[in-house]
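Task: fold both queries, return tokens.
Query 1:
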Amino acid sequence: DGIPYDAPVHHVDAVDPVGAGDAFAAGYLAELLAGAEVPARLATAAAAGAFAVTVHGDWEGLPRREELALLQLLDVDDAVAR
């Protein structure tokens, strides 16, 4: 659509970057399938990617939906502790 969008930034203590891109894509696609607009898709994708890097492994950091909601409530300067 040619419209630029901003995504939220979540400052986390990164442990392992493996799986971050997959988590981002999964979050985006989950919201797309749920009928969400682009800003909501990006917000969920960014949160999922942030969660993914907080633990070792490629799938262990994938968040549940309720964990994503908690991250949305945190100030962007707060680190996520898992």
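Query 1 returned. Query 2:
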Amino acid sequence: MVQQPKRNMVLTVLILAVLSIFCALPFLSLIASQQAPIALILLTIFLSLALFVQWRLDPGFTVCLVPDRKMLVWIGITGICLVYIAASCFWSSNPADSLQRLKRLGLLLAIGFLAVFAAQRVPPASHRLMLSVVFAVTGFAALFVSEKVFGLLSNTIWASESDEFKAQFLNRPSTYMVMLAWPAAYAAHRAGKNLVSWALVISLPLVLFWSSSTSGALSAAAGFGAFLVTSLNRKAATILFGAVVFVSVLAIPYAIKNEAFLNAAVSAVRQTGAFSAAHRLGIWNFVASRSDEKPLFGWGVDVGRTLPGAEILLGDVESFSPYLDKLDQTFPTLRSSPALPLHPHNAALQLHLELGVVGAVSFCLVVVYAAFSLAKIGSPSAARYTVAWATSWFVIAYFSIGLWQTWWWALSAICLIQFTYFCRSCGADRYAPTEQCKHR
């Protein structure tokens, strides 16, 4: 029989080994910068293993293994959303693809909930371990060196200079940088390194404005603005965030068809000379027009690839034709560009197209509720970072990504897990078992 001191030593080694892997966030974040879903799975395994080992082997470990009320509420909200998305598969133009997307999204959410559950209950990180997340962001420098010196293609913001990279991962590197930087800045703050934290916060928009990613620069700048506003008044900042989400999501289908709005947007695009921006104006106008055909419930989840008529070129989109005449000189190849390549590159319009007004309103409610929840998970100072992250998240979703992309939700989950872990105070009192909640 193993003696108690020896058993405790073995237990301590096992727990520290598992937690050291989890807290080696440079390792996980560098994986996330290439494959976010794989990083999320690894993070979930490490956290779950740490919780399981401590629960089974440490006699002094007492923690409630029943999900708390807030998590149950979120599970309920997620379940309702998935039910509606599942229902949309029945009227989808391609039910098979819609069902496949639903399965991936459901599995990803289940993994994310498991990781958050474990992150709430494993021992809180020390200041030294908190600082490790800072190196997750600075670890991108290693990728930069490998690319610049050795010519290796990597998912860093500087890889956007590569034509090959642009064709496959446009805006993805800047998205990784923005999403991972806010948890890193908060971890530095929690570790008492406020100078490091502020350096990350201030340098983020500066670095991204130096890159060629417009959406990355906008999201970093918006996040920085939200950080400052939340520092002054947390409640006002979250209310302002909610108002912006509702107005921008519900108004975009009408604004993108408005003549005055489009003329102003076309003039701005011509001045910048950004082809991707001009192309997206055309995509958004086409998507808004098609959304009008099924405004209430949409065409079905993930139908962008198979939407009837999506294969046409922008030159054949009647509603955008007057504006193409103004853009021809600056962008001569714009007419021959697809009207809808894969997805609309705008979460709000994608929701209107695929899930209708019902889906768009539901999305607004969930995002706003999530922002208010994030603003309350830690101390008042934590709200600056969580609201800033939520703002950057929304801007990226609004201007850049396809809403259902697996890597996007996996990366979002990784950031939420980090916030959950680092927002906890020292000790696990919140999850200590009650008389009705004992693990043995």
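Both queries returned. Flag for query 2: Residues 1-6, 11-26, 155-160, 425-440 have pLDDT under 50 and may be disordered.
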